[in-house]
C-alpha cells in the first residue's frame, strides 16, 4: 500500500473507533474497561498483570489497554451490554448490578455461601459458572468468573455489635442477595454500584454500607466512615460475583495463535488469580483503615450465629423465588455449596 494511502486508511480506522484489530489483522489492541480506581486491588493485582502477561506471551502482538472509572463511556450497571454490543472490547462485569437479569448467579452471593478466601470462592465461582451460567453469558466470551474476599460492614460511628444495632441504618448494598440480608437484619438497604458509594456517604444518603477491605482506601472509607466490622468464623457475610469478559466477535475474529494466548490465561487459573488479587488487597486495605485509627471490629460468635440464622431465611426465600421463576432453587444452592466445599483449603 502506498504510504499516503496507509496513513489515510489508518486515520479512517482511528476516526471510526475500530480499536479491536489493526490493518494487518495479525496485531490486536483490546480496550478493556472497569469502574473502579486503577489503584484498587483487582486492577493492580489482576487486570494489569493479566494485560502484561497477554502482551508478553504474544510478543507484543496483543496490546490490552485498561480504562478505569468507565472512561470509555456508559455506566457500571450497563457494562455487560457495552461488551456484548462491541462498544468496548472487554471489561469487568458485576451481573448483580442488573437485578433479575442473571438470577442463577445470585446463588454464589447468598449469605455465608463462600469462605473468606477470594481465591477459594473464585475457584468455586468458575465451577458454578461452567455448570449453570455459560448459557446466560452466551453473547459474550467469558475469560474468568470470580468473587472477592469477605464483605465488611463499614459505617459512621461505633461498630455494630448486635443484630439490633442494624435497625434503621441506611446501608449501601451491591447486589440483591446483599440487600435482602440487610433488610432481614433490620437495616434500610440501598442498592447502588460502587462508584456512587463515596458521594452517598458524604451527602448522608447512607450511614454506611457493605464492601470489601480492599476497596476501602480508594473509596476514602478511612475518612468517610469510623468503624469496620466483620463476622466471626471463616464464612463471608456476603460475597459478590464478577466476570471478566470480552466481545464474542472480537475474540472469535482474532488469529488462532493469538486467541490461544487469551485461552491460556482464562478459565480456572484466571478466576483464581482474580480472587487472589482481592485477598492481597484486603490485607493492604485493612491495615490502612487500622493505621488511620478507625475501629476494626468483629462480631461475636453468638451474634454471628444469629445473623447466619437470618441469612438462612434469606436463602430459603430465594429458593422459593427461584422455584417460582421455573428454576430449581435448592439445586442451585446445593451446587454452589458443593463447589465451595470442593475448593475449600484443607484445615
Give the helix/strand layout.
Layout: H1 3-16, E1 28-33, H2 41-57, E2 62-67, H3 79-84, E3 90-93, H4 118-133, E4 140-147, E5 152-155, E6 170-173, H5 176-184, E7 188-191, H6 197-202, E8 208-211, H7 221-224, E9 227-230, E10 241-247, H8 248-253, H9 256-264, H10 268-291, E11 295-298, H11 301-324, H12 329-342
Parallel strand pairs: 1-2, 1-3, 6-7, 6-8, 9-11
Antiparallel strand pairs: 3-10, 4-10, 5-8, 5-9
Task: Describe the structure in your own words.
Helix content is 43%, strand content 16%. The longest helix is centred in the C-terminal third of the chain and has 24 residues, at 268-291. The protein is globular. It starts with a helix and ends in a 5-residue tail after the last helix. It has 347 residues and is α/β, with parallel strands linked by helices. The relative contact order is 0.17. It has 12 helices and 11 strands. Strands 7-6-8-5-9-11 form a 6-stranded mixed sheet, with helices on both faces. Helix 4 crosses helix 12 and helix 5 crosses helix 11. The chain has helices at residues 3-16, 41-57, 79-84, 118-133, 176-184, 197-202, 221-224, 248-253, 256-264, 268-291, 301-324, 329-342; strands at 28-33, 62-67, 90-93, 140-147, 152-155, 170-173, 188-191, 208-211, 227-230, 241-247, 295-298.
Amino acid at each position: 500500500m502506498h504510504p499516503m494511502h496507509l496513513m489515510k486508511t489508518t486515520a479512517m480506522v482511528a476516526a471510526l473507533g475500530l480499536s479491536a484489530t489493526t490493518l494487518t489483522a495479525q496485531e490486536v489492541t483490546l480496550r478493556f474497561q472497569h469502574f473502579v480506581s486503577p489503584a484498587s486491588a483487582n486492577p493492580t493485582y489482576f487486570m494489569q498483570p493479566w494485560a502484561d502477561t497477554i502482551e508478553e506471551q504474544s510478543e507484543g502482538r496483543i496490546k490490552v489497554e485498561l480504562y478505569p472509572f468507565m472512561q470509555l463511556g456508559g455506566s457500571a450497571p450497563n457494562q455487560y451490554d457495552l461488551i456484548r454490543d462491541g462498544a468496548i472490547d472487554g471489561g469487568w462485569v458485576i451481573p448483580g448490578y442488573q437485578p433479575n437479569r442473571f438470577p442463577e448467579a445470585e446463588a454464589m452471593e447468598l449469605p455465608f455461601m463462600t469462605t473468606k478466601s477470594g481465591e477459594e470462592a473464585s475457584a468455586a465461582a468458575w465451577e458454578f459458572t461452567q455448570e449453570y451460567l455459560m448459557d446466560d453469558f452466551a453473547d459474550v466470551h467469558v475469560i474468568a468468573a470470580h468473587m472477592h474476599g469477605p464483605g465488611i460492614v463499614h459505617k459512621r460511628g461505633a461498630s455494630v455489635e448486635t443484630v439490633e444495632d442494624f435497625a434503621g441504618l441506611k446501608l449501601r448494598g451491591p447486589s440483591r442477595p446483599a440487600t435482602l440480608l440487610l433488610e432481614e437484619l433490620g437495616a434500610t438497604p440501598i442498592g447502588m454500584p460502587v462508584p456512587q458509594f463515596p458521594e452517598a456517604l458524604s451527602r448522608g444518603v447512607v450511614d454506611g454500607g457493605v464492601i470489601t477491605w480492599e476497596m476501602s482506601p480508594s473509596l476514602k472509607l478511612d475518612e468517610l466512615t469510623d468503624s469496620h466490622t466483620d463476622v466471626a468464623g471463616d464464612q463471608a457475610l456476603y460475597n459478590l460475583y464478577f466476570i471478566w469478559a470480552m466481545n464474542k466477535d472480537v475474540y472469535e475474529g482474532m488469529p488462532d495463535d493469538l486467541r490461544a494466548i487469551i485461552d491460556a490465561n482464562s478459565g480456572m487459573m484466571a478466576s483464581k488469580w482474580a480472587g487472589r488479587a482481592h485477598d492481597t488487597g484486603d490485607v493492604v486495605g485493612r491495615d490502612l483503615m487500622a493505621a488511620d485509627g478507625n475501629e476494626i471490629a468483629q462480631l461475636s460468635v453468638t451474634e454471628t450465629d444469629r445473623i447466619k440464622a437470618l441469612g438462612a431465611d434469606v436463602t430459603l426465600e430465594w429458593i422459593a423465588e427461584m422455584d417460582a421463576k421455573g428454576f430449581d432453587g435448592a439445586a442451585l444452592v446445593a451446587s454452589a455449596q458443593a463447589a465451595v466445599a470442593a475448593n475449600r483449603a484443607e484445615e
